[in-house]
Amino acid sequence: MALEITDQNLNEVVSQNEKPVVMDFWATWCGPCRMIAPHIEEMAAAYHDKAIIGKVNVDENPEVSAKYGIRNIPTVIFIKNGEVKDKVVGAVPKTTLIAKLEALL
């Protein structure tokens, strides 16, 4: 299951982690977000030992969303060593998400 990333635990998850971090910015009312949600959950299960896969509810965590300049959802960002290395906006195929994560491993 994907980790819930919040305004409160962001620094702990991103700054204090050597594994790559994938953050899915979403909202309950967002149709395309629901389309990629199963991909995120599958990646969380498949990569649990290699990466942190998390979800950020933009309505509940405005500080995280503002920090990363999220203007459209779904947006998935890929972080390594505390820096954003890649990003995708919109509903994309699972293969796209996996390829971007694999590039960081």
Please name the defining characteristics of this protein:
105 residues, alpha/beta, Glutaredoxin, five-stranded mixed β-sheet, 34% helix
Descriptive report:
With 105 residues, the protein is of the alpha/beta class. The protein has one domain: Glutaredoxin (3-Layer(aba) Sandwich). It is 34% helix and 26% strand. The chain is built from 4 helices and 5 strands, in the order βαβαβαββα. The protein has helices spanning 10-14, 31-46, 62-67, 94-102; strands at residues 3-4, 21-26, 52-57, 75-80, 83-89. The chain has a 5-stranded mixed β-sheet, with helices on one face. The radius of gyration is 12 Å and the shape is globular. The mean pLDDT is 94.
Brief overview, please?
The chain has 4 helices and 5 strands, in the order E-H-E-H-E-H-E-E-H. It is α/β, with parallel strands linked by helices.
